[in-house]
Amino acid sequence: MPTAADKLPVKKIKLPQGFKAEVWASNILDARGLRQGDNGTVFVSSLFVAGKIYAVVDKDGKREVKTIAEKLFLPNGIEFHKGALYVATPKDITRYDNIEANLDSPPAPVMVYDKLPGDVPHGWKFIKVGPDGKLYVPVGAPCNICDPPATHSQIFRMNLDGSGVESVVKGMRNTVGFDFDPKTGDLWFGDNQRDWLSEDLPLDELNHVTQPGKQHFGFPYCAGDIADPEFGWGHSCKSYAKPAALLGPHAAPLGMRFYTGTMFPQKYQGAIFLTRHGPWNKTQKYGADVVAVFIDANGKAKVEPFLTGLVEKNSYLGRPADVMVMKDGSLLVSDDHNGAIYRITYGK
């Protein structure tokens, strides 16, 4: 069950000087993905427990939560584009047209694409329409570590009607968050690396796609410069694209966004805000935070803490799952551990 609003750990959240966190919405079971509609509606996806898509409407400073779809199969991936809400499960992608005008009586979903593999391991989606107008959809590895079939371990893109499917990234294990640099149009994505090798290896990654369709990011043969002991034999890690940044062992990078607002200081203009959900199988808990990633003129990435404080006595107080830049420049952060959404603002 979601945590009661007055019990949420918002006072535990630590931020850089001048920033403030508040509870923006609560009682949203399994709150995961975030997207904002043209009229300000915030759509929220869920995963294991709820199987729902929510719409959060702001009425005079108070948030009303509506359920617009339910009994779905792991509907983690959502995108809003030209009045329509796209919803991705491990099996398919559907579209709800003119959704903001019909929140109380949602239209029947239109099938966009029904040929996804349907795997549960690493099958839940994070989807986004790119600057090329195409819908980007990942298909993760169907395993912890294996030589995946040709249909997996890739990010694909397709036309908005589901046609013209093509691969743009290979050698990806499990991405649950990516975004496009608003300056260059380049795709950046997080990748969750394998388990059961070591508590401290391999390191999860932030990757930069500079040659769509031509880069292989190493899975299952290499994680960065580290050859996999099972599948790395005969493979030189130098032949694969290198991570732009390392995010820690089993950190579980999820949702991420380039900051396109103006509320935050100049330092954060163009930075990436990225959630680290935190390890599920590491003895020492860490992460459960939001990091800021700064990219210099040469494309080099530097990772700094931004939102922290949600790990206490080796337990998670909350677990950030996605971020979204609001139209006013504030930052929303979903917390699926508590079924809540926090709002981050800045004021001198």
Automatic annotation (TrEMBL):
> In this entry, which stretches build a coiled coil?
none
- At the top level, the lineage of the source is Bacteria
Pyrroloquinoline quinone-dependent pyranose dehydrogenase beta-propeller domain residues are: 14-345
By its UniProt entry, which InterPro entries does this protein fall under?
6-blade_b-propeller_TolB-like, Beta-prop_PDH, Quinoprot_gluc/sorb_DH_b-prop
Q: Where is the signal peptide?
A: none
Provide the protein name.
Sorbosone dehydrogenase
Native organism is: Candidatus Muproteobacteria bacterium RBG_16_60_9
